[in-house]
Every structure is written in C-alpha cells, then in structure tokens.
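User: My advisor, Dr. K., asked me to get a structural model of this assembly before our group meeting. I'm new to this, so sorry if the format is off. These are the inputs:
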Amino acid sequence: MPDLNDATRGRVLYGGDYNPEQWPESVWHDDIRLMRRAGVTTVTVGVFSWARLEPRPGARDFDWLDRVLDLLHEGGIEVCLATPTASPPPWMGSRHPETLPRDESGTVVWYGSRNQFCASSPVYRDHALRITEDLADRYGGHPGLRMWHVGNEYGTHCWCDETARHFRRWLRTRYGGLDALNEAWGTAFWSQRYDSWEEIIPPRRAQYLINPGQALDFRRFTSDALLECFTAERDALAARTPHIPVTTNFHPLFIGQDGWAWAAEEDVVSVDLYPDPKDPHAAAYGALVQDLTRSQAGGPWVLMEQAAGPVNWRGVNHPKPHGLMRLWSLQAVARGADAVCFFQWRQSRQGGEKFHSGMVPHAGEHSRTFARVGELGAELRELAPVVGTDVPARAAILHDWHSWWATVQDGRPSSLVSCERLLRAWHQALWERNLTTDFAHPHADLTDYALVAVPQLYLLTDEALDNLAAYVRGGGTLVCGFFTGVADEDDRVRPGGVDRRLRGLLGIRTVHEWWPLDEGEALTAEGAWLGAFHGTLWSEDLEPSTAEPVARIKGGELDGRPAVIRNAYGTGTAWYVSTLPEPTALRALLGRAAEEAGLAPALPGLPEGVEAVWRGPYLFLLNHGRTPAVVPLPSAPSGRTDLLTGRAHHTSVRLDRFAVMVLAPPESLA
Amino acid sequence: MPDLNDATRGRVLYGGDYNPEQWPESVWHDDIRLMRRAGVTTVTVGVFSWARLEPRPGARDFDWLDRVLDLLHEGGIEVCLATPTASPPPWMGSRHPETLPRDESGTVVWYGSRNQFCASSPVYRDHALRITEDLADRYGGHPGLRMWHVGNEYGTHCWCDETARHFRRWLRTRYGGLDALNEAWGTAFWSQRYDSWEEIIPPRRAQYLINPGQALDFRRFTSDALLECFTAERDALAARTPHIPVTTNFHPLFIGQDGWAWAAEEDVVSVDLYPDPKDPHAAAYGALVQDLTRSQAGGPWVLMEQAAGPVNWRGVNHPKPHGLMRLWSLQAVARGADAVCFFQWRQSRQGGEKFHSGMVPHAGEHSRTFARVGELGAELRELAPVVGTDVPARAAILHDWHSWWATVQDGRPSSLVSCERLLRAWHQALWERNLTTDFAHPHADLTDYALVAVPQLYLLTDEALDNLAAYVRGGGTLVCGFFTGVADEDDRVRPGGVDRRLRGLLGIRTVHEWWPLDEGEALTAEGAWLGAFHGTLWSEDLEPSTAEPVARIKGGELDGRPAVIRNAYGTGTAWYVSTLPEPTALRALLGRAAEEAGLAPALPGLPEGVEAVWRGPYLFLLNHGRTPAVVPLPSAPSGRTDLLTGRAHHTSVRLDRFAVMVLAPPESLA
Amino acid sequence: MPDLNDATRGRVLYGGDYNPEQWPESVWHDDIRLMRRAGVTTVTVGVFSWARLEPRPGARDFDWLDRVLDLLHEGGIEVCLATPTASPPPWMGSRHPETLPRDESGTVVWYGSRNQFCASSPVYRDHALRITEDLADRYGGHPGLRMWHVGNEYGTHCWCDETARHFRRWLRTRYGGLDALNEAWGTAFWSQRYDSWEEIIPPRRAQYLINPGQALDFRRFTSDALLECFTAERDALAARTPHIPVTTNFHPLFIGQDGWAWAAEEDVVSVDLYPDPKDPHAAAYGALVQDLTRSQAGGPWVLMEQAAGPVNWRGVNHPKPHGLMRLWSLQAVARGADAVCFFQWRQSRQGGEKFHSGMVPHAGEHSRTFARVGELGAELRELAPVVGTDVPARAAILHDWHSWWATVQDGRPSSLVSCERLLRAWHQALWERNLTTDFAHPHADLTDYALVAVPQLYLLTDEALDNLAAYVRGGGTLVCGFFTGVADEDDRVRPGGVDRRLRGLLGIRTVHEWWPLDEGEALTAEGAWLGAFHGTLWSEDLEPSTAEPVARIKGGELDGRPAVIRNAYGTGTAWYVSTLPEPTALRALLGRAAEEAGLAPALPGLPEGVEAVWRGPYLFLLNHGRTPAVVPLPSAPSGRTDLLTGRAHHTSVRLDRFAVMVLAPPESLA
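Assistant: The format is fine. Below is the predicted structure of the whole assembly, which you can bring to the meeting.
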C-alpha cells in the first residue's frame, strides 16, 4: 500500500487548497507564478468542484481541470486531487430531495451551503462513486498526481427514513437478533422493547432522555456510514491507482468519527487545525491535535488545512500576530507533520468563506501575509532531512471515541464533565512538562510506554480493563482520572459500583457516591509533596483498600476523603485522581508519576512557554511566549546546527518571541 | 369510596418503584430478601411495563408478572400495581404514528424515551383502556394488591390535528356557540374572529403574541384531556375492584394539571418530590409541595417518589449528605404523608435513568445508601401511631392553576413575575415562622382560617372575589399580593383598572400604573414597625382610599407612595403588598398579620432552621440546619416521648444537624 | 400627488389607532366625547378589522364601519382609514394553508396571532386587493376621510415554495440569465452552481454558512415582495381617491424593508416609535428614528404610533415617568412630525396587547394618563404654526439597507459589529453636539451638506464610491468608519483589500489586517487634541499614504498604528476612524470635523441633556435631564415667545426636568 513517502519524496509538502474554478483562467497563470515564488510544492484541487465537473446529472466538464492540472504540472507544482463529493451540486438536492439530510426533528437541511448529503442515500452514493471513478480514470495517470483527497471533513449526521433503514441493517449485523439488541440497549427500561426491526428508528426528537444504547449505537452507525462513503471512493481510486496514497482530512479532535477506525482505512492521515490566536492555550491545543493525528497515523502525517491569518467562523475572528503562523506551522512539523498546507491558496472574493484568510490574501502578492507565506516555504525546504522521521514518545494518553460518545448524552451525573475538557487539561499538563505524548486506543499494546494516562474513559470494554491491568502488573505506571471504567461496551453500568478489576488495580474498596461540583465550585485538597491545591468538576466519597492516599480533601462534606491515591499493583503503579486538579497540581502530579516511572522531559531546565520536541535526531525548540527565553542545550562538544539558519549553537540558545530552532544532532556537524 | 387507609392499614407505607423486568428472575429473590431487610411494606410494580406486558398489539405476556406478584406476596410485600400507560411500546408509535405527540411547530415527538402519546388519540386511549382492564381482571383479586397507580406524572402536551378536533369538541361544550367563544377570547383584536369551528386550532407556532384566551383554554383543555385518560382507566379499575384505592402521582408544583380538579378524581393523592440537595431553600420547597399535596388530598397523602441519593436530570446532580434523606422523608410524614416511597427500588444498570439513585444502588446491599434505607424503614415502623392523623393549619395560601396559566403567557407587564416564585417566597415566609399552612382554592370555604394569603392570583372569578370579601367581612385576615384580581375568568381585564370589589376590600382608590422592576433592581420602602426593607419585581403608583399605609416607598419616581397598606373591612382586615418584600420583611409582615389574627407559630421560641409541625397530637421537630439547635418544649409535667427513640424529653431538646424528633403527647406517657 | 398637507390642513394631527370593533356600540359615543375632550383630530380606523369586515370569504359586513365613520365625522374627528390586510382572518389560513408563511425550517407560522401571510401568495394578494377596493369604493367619498393607511408594519418573511417561485421570477428580472446569477452569487464556491432556475430556493435551513449572495438577494426580494403588496393596494386606492394621501407605518430602524425604496412609494411617510423609558439613551434613539423618518419623507412626517404609557412586549415594561410622554411627543414635532398618534385610543381589555397602554387606559377618563393625553392635545393645537415647516440639517449620515443586510450574515470578521450599533453611536455623538443630522442614501446629492458621516457602509456601489469622492473633492468633509466599502453591490470583496478609490480618498496605502476586538476588550489610542481614549469592537493594521494620523494606538500588537487619520482630498477633507471611539471621543472627533467644516451646533453653550432643534424659524428646546437647566438664548432684542405658553423669554430660559419650549422667532413678536 502506498504511503505518505510516495507523496513527500523527501520534501516537506507545502501548499493549500487551490480552487481555480473561482477565478478566471487569466488568474491561473499568476497563481502558478506565485506558488513557485512561495515555495509551494503541492496543491489540493477540486474539493468543491462537483457542480463544475458535473453541471447536470451525468454530464462531465473536465476540460478546465485538464488545463489546470497541466498548467500546474508545467509549473512544477504537484497535485493532491480531490473527489468533490463533500458538496453535491444543487441539482442533486433539487431532483433527489431524499439525498438531503434531516435533523432530529425531521427538518430538511437544504443546499445553499455545503455538506448537504445523507450518508445513507444510495442516490448520493451512486453519484459520488461515479464522479470519483471518472476522475480516477481521467487523471490517475497524470504525472502531477501525488495523492488523492476524498471528500472533506466528513461529519454530516442524518435522521431520515433512509438512514433509519440503513441503521437497522447495521444493527442486524451488530446484534444478529432483536433479543440481543433489546438486551444491549436495556429496553426493559421505560417500556422500550422492540418487537420488530421496522420499529427501530434513529434517536429522533423525543419527550425526554433518549435510550443511551440507541444513542451510542447511532453515533457508531453514523461514523461507520460515513466511513463506508469514504471507503467506497477509496476503493475505486485504489483499484485504478494502487501506487497513489489516499487520504481524507479530519476535523481536529472531532467527536463525529471514530478516529481509530477511520485512520486504519487511510493511506495517509491528515487533519485541519485552526487554533484561535487569542486562546492562551492554543499552542497546547495544537500539540494535542498533532499528537493525536500522529498517533492515528502511526508516524508522519499531513497538516491539510490551517489559516494564514484569521478564519471567519468564530464570533470574533482574530488574525495571527507576526510570527505565529510560522511558529504553529513548525510546531506541526516538530510533532510529525510532513506536509504544511492551508485553506486556501487564494482568498475568495465571494461565497461563505471570503473572510477566511488565504495564502494570497485580498491585498495580493505585495501583502505582508504573502511575504510570510513565502518565507515559510523557503524554511520548509531546509527541513527536508526531517521528513519521514519519528517522534518518539514514552507517555501515552488513552482515548476512545466510543467512550466519548457515551459521555455526551444527557442524564449523566454532571453535564459539566466533558471528555474534551479533560483530555485537554491532562495533555496540556504533560505538554507543559515537555513530556512528548502519544495517544492510544485502550486495547493497544502499551508495553513500550513508561507512563499511561487515562483522563477519563467512562466506557471500558473487558479487553481494555484487562489490558490496563496487565500493563501495570507488568511494571507500567498508570494515572487514571475519575468516572473511568463505569460502563461496559453497551453503556451498561458495571456491577458493584466500581468494576472488580479496577478495584484491584487502583486499590479502591468502593466509591460510595460521586459528588460532582457545580460551575465555579472548587474543593481544596492537600498532599505531602503536592501541597494544597484546588480541584474542580468532580469529587468522590472514595474509600481506598490497598492504595495510599496522596492527597486528601480538606473541609466540606467529604473532609478527609482521599482526592488522589497511589497503588502498587504487580510490579507497577496505578494512580487515581478523583477530581480535576488545578493546572499546576495536575502538572506536578503527572510530573511526579513520570519521574517515578523514569521518564524525563524532552529537555531539562526549559523555561516556561518553550516547547521542546525530538523528531528523529532533531531537536525542535519553540518559544510560544511573548518574551525571549534562554534554553540550555544538551551537551554536545561540537554544538548543534539550526537547520533553518545553518548557524551552530553550543551551550545554550536564545529564542525570541515566537522563535523556532531545529537543531541537528552533533554528528551531523562532522 | 376506598381511601388511603385501605392501603396503609395503620402503617406508614415504605417502598418504591419496583421494575423487576429490568433484571433476571434470579435477582427477584434477592430483591425480596432485601426489601424485607429494609422494612419495605409496599412496592409499585409495572409503571413502565407495557412493552413487556403487550409485546405486540393485542398480545398479553402476564406470566412474569404473576410470578413477581406471587413472590412479593409470599415475601409479605404488598403491591401498588400500576397501569403501564405512561409509556406506550414502540409498536404503537411505529404502527400508529398519529398517537405520537406533535409540538407547537408540528414536530413529531418520537418514541425512544417515554411519554410519547397524544392524550386525544382514540387509538392510544383504546389500547390503554384494554391493557388496564386486563390487568384489573387478572390481578384485581390478588391478595397482595393494595392500591392502583394509573399512568405516571401526566403532563404530555400535543398540538396535532387530532388534538385540534378534540379541542374543538371541548370548546363547544364550554361555550355552546362560536359567538360566546369569540367574545371570551376577544377575537375582535387582531382580526381573529372565528367563523366556523373547523378554523379553530391549538395555539401553534405563530408570528407574535398568541391570543391569550386561546392559550388559556388550551391549557385548560390539555389538563382535562389528560384527566379523561386518567378517569377512563380509574373507572375501569373501580368497576372491577371497588375496594382498592386509585392514585396517580403528581409532579411537584406542576403547571400542567389543574391540581384541584385532578385531586378530586383520585382516591389517594400522591406526589413525586425531588428537591435539589444543594438548594439552600430545598426544605422550604419540600414543605410547600407537601402542604399543597395534603391540601389537595384533604388529609394524608403518599410520597410516591423521592431519591435515595442523587437524581440524574439536573445539570449537576448532587448526592444527599448524611442524614438528609431521612430528614426529608420524615418532613413528609410530619406534613401528612402516610407513605414514603422512592424511585426506584434497585438502581438501573441501563436506560435513561441509570444514574438516578435507587434504594439498592449499584454498589449493592453493603453500601451506605442501602444501610440508610434500612434504618429509615425501621424508624417508619415506629411512626405507626401517626398514620391517619391530621395536620391542623389555620393559615391558608390561595392557589389556582387557571390563574397561573394566564400569567405564563407573553405580553404581560413583567416576564420576571412568576406565580411559582411568589408562591415559594410567601410560603417560605410562613414556613420560617412555623405557621403551618394549607393551600386552598379561591372558591373554598375559608371561614376556619385565621389568615389567608394570596401571593398572587391574577385571574379571579366573580365567585372568588365575593368569597374573599365575605371572608374578610366576617372577620378574616387577608394578605394580598400585587397583580391580583386583574382579570376575570376569561383573562379579560376587569374594568376600571382595579375591580370595584377589590377596591372596597383593600381600601384602594386606584392603581395609576404598575412599575415593574428590572432584574437586579430593588426599591427601598420603610414602615413604622417594619423598618426599612428592599422590594423587588414590582412596584405600583398606588393610591389608597380607606387603607392606612404600613410602609412607603423611599426615593425614585414613586417616592412616598405606599408599598404596603392595611384596611379594616367588615370585622376583618385586608392587607395589600405592592412589591415582593425581601425575605425578612415578608416574614415580619406575614408574622404580624398572623399575630394580629391571633395565630401563633407551631412552637414559640424556635431557633432558626428548626421546623416544628403538629400532626394530630404529635409534635415533629426537624433541624434543617447544619449546626445543633436547642428547642424549648411546650410545658408538660411528665415530658414527651420521642417515638423514634422511645426517650422522654422534658423542658427542651437538643437536635443535632439534620436531626428529627417525633414527640408523643404527654398523656400517651401515662 | 397628494401629500401630508392634505391631511394636516394646518394642524398637528393628534390621535391614535381606534378599534371600535373591540367594544360595544354604546362605548363608541363615549369614545367620541372623550376624543373631543382630548383634542383628538384624527383616528386610524380598521387596521385589524378584516375578520369583522369579511367574516367569511367574499362576505362584506361594512355597516358597523359606516356607523363608526359617520359618528366620528359628526363628532368632528377625521379618519385615517386602514386597509385591514396586515392580519388575515382565520378562515384564510384555514381554507388556504398555502397563504401561511413558513420559516427557514419549513415550519408553518399559524394564525392565532397576527401577520400570518406569505407576501408571495396570490390567494392572499387577491383577497387583500379585493377588500381594499371595496373599502375605497365605499368610503373614498366619505367627508371624514383624510388619509389611507395600508397594512401595518410590513415585515413578515417567508421561505415557502410559493415564495421560491416568486423569488425565481424576481431573480430572472434582476439577472436575466443564470450565468449572471451564478457570477453574482459566486456559486463556484462550495459547488453551488445552479444549472436551472427550478433549483433555486430561498436560503433555507442549511448545514453551515449560507451563500451570501443568495442571502442578500433574498432580503432584497422580500423587501420588494412586501412592497408589491403595498403598491398594489396603494394603486387601488389612488385610482379611486387621487386626492387622498396614502401611507404605511414603518417599524423604527427596521432591517426588513429598504427604507429608501419604500418611502419613495408613499405619499406620506409614517413610523411607530417606542423607546424604552428605562433606556438612558432613549432620547437619542428617538431622535435618530425621527431624523431617519424625516429624511425618508423629505420633509414632515407622521408619528403613527407611540405609547401613552408602557408597552407590553418587553421583558419588563416600564411606564413613562411624568412628563416623558409629552417630552417625546414634542421631540417628534421638533424633528419634523406633523402628526402625533398613539397605539391605541382605548386600551384593550382582551387580546395580546391588553397590557399595552392606551390614551384611555383601563382606569378610564379620570386617570392621570388620560389627563396628560388631554393636556398634550391642547398644546399641540398651539403648535399649528410649525406645521409644514422644514428641519434644516447640514450634516448627514449615510445609510443603506442593502449594506446592512450584507453585514448581518454569518462568516464576517466579527459578529459583534452591528450596523445598528454603529449608527446609534455615531448619530448620538452628533445629537449630543446638537448638530441636526439628516440621513441620506449613498447615491444622494450631498453637495448641500457641510459634513457627511459614514458610520459603516460595508457594501458600496461604484456609484456610491464615486459620489463620495466627488463630494470631498468638491470641498466636503467626510468622516468614515471602519469596514466601509469592502464589498461591491453583489457582496463581492473589492480587489486589493481596499478599493482604489477609497485608498485615494482616505489616504490609505493598505489595511494589512483587521483586528476585531472581543466583547469587553478595548484598545487605547491617543491623539494630540483628542487626548487618550478607548476604542472597542474593531482595530486595524492600517498603513496610511497621504493621510496624517490624528490618533495612534498605544500598546498591544498594533502599537503605534494610526487609529484615526485625516486626509486632504481635492478641496475637501476625509477622515477615517478604524475603531469605535468611546462616546466622548467620538463626540469630540465629529465635533472637530464639523467645526473645521464650518458647522455650528443648533445653539452654542447648551448644558448637557438639553436638545435644541430648529424647525423653520422655531427653536425647540427640550430638557431630557432630570434636573433643571438654564439655556442661553440667541440674542433677540425683543425676546422670543414660547408657543406653548405664550410667555416671552429674553437672554436665557430655565427648563425644568423634561420641560419643552417652542420659541417663535423674534419678528413674530412684532
């Protein structure tokens, strides 16, 4: 199977979405001239071209695309060619209204925007496959073609009758018989027992709480139904161009697709990433998405979309202060990206995203933005040695979309507890300690990790529980957050309050009751080396068995109960954290657990705000702070060379605001 | 007609909703063992069993229920058997989509949750009646049967076409002819005159303010339509088991059902009560619901549902600190409950409410929760002498659902003014003074009450106005809140601004204008013995005639206008309060009015946080505070005995946090 | 063509909406008695009488209206007769459901309120026209008829299929062919190209951002569709009564109608105005609406609706403190109103607006409110000399509904930036400087204005850009706010970031990036004579060319960039303001620009809170403050006479709280 190396060929790919159909042909020549000037290697063409390629059902208008691809090829620009199936033309919704999605209330989601297709619609699927096949037949042999890009940010949900039929077929496959389904969904509750398959529907607008099993399976089904759309197109492409890798771009940290299942179907994993420049935790968020994407890819990956400046879909859309676009681009490379791309090449003058920045902004080639785009292109060329190298990580955060899905339903102990919030808090704590972190599925082989963190996995399968126990028993260090392992695969609460295996692993006798905290409420806890700290979101009336208390709650109804415990299990150690400690405490706690597990940060003695990541033998240093920082370097008699400048550095380096260095290993100086 | 005594037979009923269909039969035996251990007397079975009892249209699967009832009976546990009609099986919505409710916008409310039936649907009604008849035929003679429980928390609204036809029939009955309807609804306004019955629809989604008469009548109709569902089932049961009382459980302080009309149709009145453990006014709220329910029942009543710990439908669901479940259970008994029950017996492992606590929680029989459940069961056995006794009250709050309904529409002087908020504020003031309070309909005979409070009755019929005037004329004391008596039965503003009768009764010349206050805005008022206090929500440019000012507004546009007035009328006194005084002032004001009316608190000299209620000859003392309190006892030479402990107490008692005593009368010591 | 003079005939019209069908005929006589007492000259009859006039399709019941008009005429009260077409009778929605509007989601908007018609429905239009013709035929010659009032506050939007067909016809007219439409809407973006007219729909509920061209054109279309309804009725009336002026009443500052296009079709321009008495900026808001209405009318206008006391559609509805109703009524006259009317004459006892105050309130003729109404009527008689005179203004604010429409779509740089907010802020600054201000269309002849302000015109046509440049070139002073001129008529971003013409006019080289500010965020700027001030909402990385900086940003990423610039262009001056300065700074800035342009306030040395306006030779002085103010008068040897009191004033006058004087010119004393 082809992979990202077939597209990179030793270079960091650089480019963006190119939508020539928005412009007269006269502009195309200018585009290619500017792409060359900016160091663009690769552009993604045709993501939203369906109405242009197939102006009416069955018609084909490919000539303009022939010309675009030939022009690009002549200009030395390679192509990631998209199937245009994310946005069907108006004729599809108009002639085949049953292809339009319906929401939970049965309201039709019309065309006039994008993404208006029902993933279960055979009409949509059929048209999508045919245009994909024709594109592959026509351009599969084009010399500029380097990658296929299928669809775009899959994520449309639908509750229509066609979806209902498809959902039933999916459920039949999953459960075989109705009895198993009734059992898994617990339909004995509230008189929900299904007597025939025809009765089953998506979880539509209802009076009160929806059956959780139905809701969970509908999310599973929707992810799978969308994945079928992807794999059908992928198969059509792979059959015709077995040597060209296929990708589709993920939304970052998106709940709608099972990221592990999807990544397994892609030759190349790619993601879109748009941190808010005003968000003080934007860099940490970026690192999380990058680590997750790398983990999904199992190696290098593609940053398919980012913004040269502001986006246009926030309430207030902030531009990027000078240096930030470069900093975040290089952060992606540091964390495994072998491609740095933008939405979009030339900023639109019309349409829904005309205020989303582009590599060539409205102000044109003499703008500051375009100048910065060109500078980045030049720098990325210097990073060719980095391409294909790994980002070693000995810490892992476990994440599972199925568990996430189960926790977003109503009727939970606290609606304030969010999987995303906990993932971000825990990952940020590790990131601030410069502990490079992978993400892993709860069934994954964890033996190579010194530290495994579980911010929250409400739903844990038997296999996952056994996996965690085996990992710790074999010497691993596990740090586990609250409300973990509560339910089995069917969102059925495990008997006894806390599962038997978890009780042993974590050294807990029982959790008498959960005491979720209100918005703005905080507990105080105190531990010997942790000192006093606040905890939010959650607390528990926790009774340990073998575990030793690390910190205890002070005051309130739970005065004296342990907030953090630590349990020796087998030859390893398991920690349990029954609240969300404030950032410094969570950092201290995970830092201590890492230290005890023999895990050191990427670089010792880093000043705050500076990120250090090793990629292969290369040390990336990124100053996210707004003030200069001095970073002591690991000893190397002959110093290290910054790939970006060619300058050698010895005992320490000074990084200005938003500065980046990529230091080559000492031996490369020789 | 049977009543609650037929079920209690001299005991406080103790138990909860029991849903054996959620569990394998092996668990049932364990359930009965634990029920016995917990002192359970009675369980409610079958509330959500329809899909199990009638797995497909017309089928019957009763064998399992035979076994359950026999097992319970053998175990000495009595049964409140439910008709399962609150939650139709999926086949009903699937085969008869017209049974599904539609909201104001016409959106279908689907199955997959519960309560998805249109009360006007003949198909639903027919199926509901048939399963009810079959249950009554089969189990009417079962020796364990003590009570029927019909439906559950009726309250589903529907705006569908079938509902429209039913609404029209209801309106024909109410008005006879269209002219009367047009007159009552004031359809001359905004060109809304109806020319034929077929034109009339429920108040669906519209451009702007809905006709208030239509909106009010639709609420009346909906309450009646649901009540028809109830009475149809009740009649079927009563015809078969004339000796078994029938109940249905109310939501607490629920707007959707006319509580007076419904209670009149029940043999036993029952309610579900779930105060938020974090709400600082939870105990006052509980007392209100209990007083209201007792007043609806005209005597002892059933606490049908409460929670052993947290619920799961709030944003953040708090458990009950140690002692609170017991305290609130005994508060219900103090205020007239002869049954203390929970939702549900065994906490579910699946379904929408699996995080709602149960008497047997996930952690099982060795949990703290179950231990507390057992302790309470034992204590309730000691309270048998209390069963059937009355709670004497010489104060009453007038409440009327029709008035409430009229005030929740848009287009009122202030959307901040809420009937519930005023009821709670006024009841709490009386409760904090330990003035035991009934609720009464505005048409009720008030002669036995020393004090009648009207927090707000916007809509007052002629009969009610006459009733109030007669009450005061005959020597009663009335305290009346603002925006009372503004409209007649049809929500037609009474001529002259303030009704002639009210002007005389309250000693008001006119109210020139209402000056509602903004959120966060407060006026200052001052009175001789009231001192200075703040008022919120409302103020008025009030001009008294015969009334004397009790307090006047200080500052602002209304400087000097009276805020509180007092009028001698006949041989009685009428007070009028034109703002919502802050809690201490409202307490002082109502306390003074009570004092002048010769009404003393349940016990003099009570410390704050301690509630005292007389039930028959028994004195309940409940410490809602978190610190111990010392309560002076009414003199009794030989002391009083606490039924719960058997200990005698003399001049005073000490009540720890959340402690309760039930002191028997002195003579019972003899 | 007839105009307002045909109705006023030298008097200030005084009256309100009169809805006799809400009352028994016995009340009518009383109404006329009270109208005479109150000085009412004119009432508007029949606005919501359709169901009464046409109780079933085709029927006519006009007798009652004959009697009403005759009674009024006998009583000396003139009539503004309304077509009743704002609120179709229930039979129309019931028999012709396709006349009911549907919202973006396809939800039907039912009858039971008002305004439930689809402007594109031929059935509605046909019925509306026929009742209009019949009214005109019957009453066109009635001696009491002085004006026609068509519909009421047009503004209903609809997204139904009939609307879709109508929208397509409108688009065909606008664009001729589909290619032009595709080009104008930029449908190349997101695969939205239309292949046939039948595919085009209104912008219905969609997945994400709607096509901006479609959204803008749909607003244009809706305004036009409603206008067609108006003009069809107007034409029917004008054909029958060419001498009677026709009006329809606008909502104040309403986005839904193109105010310039609509005003051009009316003989008389009228508006409804309901400032919140609690709004501290209510008087400024009133002045804005009055200035805008006068500008639409090109002279005197009609205040068709205001409230004698509180309205009933706010969350909390405040009455008017003593004097405020008079003050605001006279403010309208000061700013050009020749008619002061209310909704409604007699406060309803039923229906959706029974808590909206009336001239005759529930409390009746002896109420304070009615007394004040009568006092105002008497005073307005004294203002007859003012009728028909002009309000001279040498400053203008440019406003265009098309630009407003383009800015309310999602996907803009900042959702906090609102056209209305900017209009209000800028107008208020001028109003506080007592610079009387017109509003003008961007294509209007501006030569007579000394100062032209553009708070924000995002969308500017070529013609408008040329017009602005010519105005300044010829010596005008332009003050221009941020985010102006960004797009052309099709909401297509003009090339180069800032349009070439604007660059020259404003002396800007380029705007590198917009830096919109968050809610609560403020920048600090400083200028030589402006001093330090805060700016909110917006900032820019602005690079001037020929313009001189007036103030610069201090601190932050944009430290040192100009916030306000000033450019000499031709013989005039253009200012550009790249943020929203705090009120005092905006006032100072516009005041300085006016001063440099030779524009003086209406009166020098006015104390804060006092408004001065010249209307013809009459000087209106209004004290909006709650404390007395002393106002120095312009020198006039023999003094000036207050038309309201007949008293002469010389060097200065004292105005109590809410006081008003209307000072006649000195020569009129002779």
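One thing worth pointing out at the meeting: Chain B touches chain A through 59 residues (CB under 8 Å).

User: Perfect, thanks a lot.
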